[in-house]
Amino acid sequence: MSEKDYTVPALQKGLKILEMFGSDCHRLTQSEMADAFGVSATSLYRIIQTLSSMGYLNKVGKNTYELGSQVVSRGFSYLASREVVEICAPYITRLRDRTSLSSHLAIREGTDVIYVFRALALQRLSVNVPVGTRFPCHTTAIGRALLIGMSPTELEELYKGQRLDGYPEPAPQTLPDLIELCAQERAQGWSIHFSDYSTAIAVPIRNYSGEVIAAINVSGSDPMMKREGVQERSIRALQDTANDIMKQLGSEG
């Protein structure tokens, strides 16, 4: 007697559709998806509509789709940011080795920062944020580094109707506070945040058009970060690493 098959074909197809996207394939038509399965386009219609309604696919043209925001926010960050991760990973690991501090890569989704890569520090006392972790951007250095590229008007639009209080200081408690802090950090080129007996410093990563597409940080315990010269050396190492990454992305840094 053969073993029963409890798989769900429609779910399998939906997941395989998401797997079709990657660093070398950002958009697909409904026909292209159907060709990959060897079926008609109409047979995938309901699956594609379901993925779209749930935010896993985003329609960008006539029967053309790209990955939606839910792919990132639900832990599939590597699909949407695979190229950035692949480029950044060796540089972030080198940054960890250079500073002996934990180093992370993050992207922004709405008002949240999502960690997509980390290089763990080797010290017993270290700060390590797991891949897939989300925080409000305004409460972390790496999150605010992602906001550095936005104008005050863009920040006002992004945070329209949202409260910023309820998070411990030194996180900004109001939108004017956030706009002022972002202006200061934009001018100096880096962000810093203190929390839970630890300190993190972060810088943005820009693409060839100058758009902030990611951010990197180093973080460590306060006893280590408060040693003489550590913060200054960390900032230089972050800026050097960011420039090397941006050259790979076609940016002048």
Automatic annotation (TrEMBL):
GO function term, MF aspect, one: DNA binding
Q: Where is the IclR-ED domain?
A: 70-251
The record ties this protein, via InterPro entries, to: GAF-like_dom_sf, HTH_MetabolicPath_Reg, Tscrpt_reg_IclR_C, Tscrpt_reg_IclR_N, WH-like_DNA-bd_sf, WH_DNA-bd_sf
Q: Does the keyword DNA-binding apply?
A: yes
Keywords, sorted A to Z: DNA-binding, Transcription, Transcription regulation
* SUPFAM superfamilies, per the entry: GAF domain-like, Winged helix' DNA-binding domain
Domain HTH iclR-type stretches: 8-69
Q: Which Pfam families does this UniProt record tie to the protein?
A: HTH_IclR (PF09339), IclR_C (PF01614)
A biological process term (GO) from this entry:
negative regulation of DNA-templated transcription
* PANTHER family noted in UniProt: HELIX-TURN-HELIX TRANSCRIPTIONAL REGULATOR, ICLR FAMILY, TRANSCRIPTIONAL REGULATOR
Output this protein's name: Transcriptional regulator
